[in-house]
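Running co-folding for magnesium ion.
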Amino acid sequence: ETLCNQIAAGEVVERPAAVVKELLENSIDAGSRRITVSLLQGGRKEIRVVDDGEGMDADDALLALERHATSKIRTAEDLQTIRSLGFRGEALPSIAAVSRFELVTKTAETVAGTRIEMEGGVLRDVRETGCPPGTSVTVRDLFFNLPARRKFLRSVDTEMAHITDQVLRLALAHPGVHFVMSHGGRETHRFPPVKDLRERVGQVLGTATAASLAPFQLETPSFKASGVLSPPEAHRNSTRSLFVTVNGRPVKDRLLTHAVLSAYDSLIPRGKYPLVVLSLTLPSEEVDVNVHPTKREVRFRRPSEVTQGVKEALSRSLLRLQK
Ligand code: ADP
Ligand code: MG
């Protein structure tokens, strides 16, 4: 079992940023309004995510750490109706398998909270504890039991760049959630909750950048697309300026990237990229997020309808910009 977890962990947990992503997504799934991410040594020494979400009772907390126990896919129908961001029930056991892991959690209904300690996938301690409602997960010494993997961790700066990228992407996807991030005890980012995407873009990418962006929007019977985009002349050097989310989940999907870039076709030099924040919302039966272990790619039931729609929405907005 432990070995199985360690192997599976390799798929989900490639580096500290992957841990941050999974923990943040869980916090968002739990309806949190405020989430803090604290890191030591680029996440290799410690990653702690604290939220004020719905929390878990003792039984659920233990279940969450059992491989596949929490997978919400039980029937073929479940597959059609996966609503929440996560569904595989693999992240927590995988992370716990390759770290010194602590989970402290409490629901609003119970008096006492639960604290669970694991080491390399082995349960070390479970006890009641006093704590506020919500969940706190601490991941220490990532890959301490997999030296070969630990060797592959890069410099603190590189790991921090990956972590920051994940945090910014999730912050852009959830403007109403308060995010705070710190490294080595020093606050690096703080995004208080705001009403709309443009305000969040201002917090994350700067108010000058936000002011230069134009909105776009499209609603069809099968999906909704909205966001902001940069004028063609403000192009950048990398695809990292494309922020795409599907049902609240940041993705890197080839079809969607292509759809976005095709709206700029011939307006931007080859090898340059626009800044686009695109948020797609579809009923769960229109999209399959169960394609890749880290859920970066998605599969649409009507891909050409979505990509055409996205391209047209962006093109219209670009035309208005040029007038
Ligand atoms: P998944 O998110 O795919 O269900 P995870 O391993 O990430 O699998 O989480 C397992 C389960 O633990 C979740 O389904 C959820 O019920 C619970 N859980 C995890 N993190 C939190 C959290 N921060 N707040 C409340 N519940 C959580
Ligand atoms: Mg999850």
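Result summary
The radius of gyration is 20 Å.
The pocket of adenosine-5'-diphosphate (ligand 1) is lined by residues 22, 26-27, 30, 51, 53-56, 64, 70, 86-92, 135 (CB under 6 Å).
Job closed.
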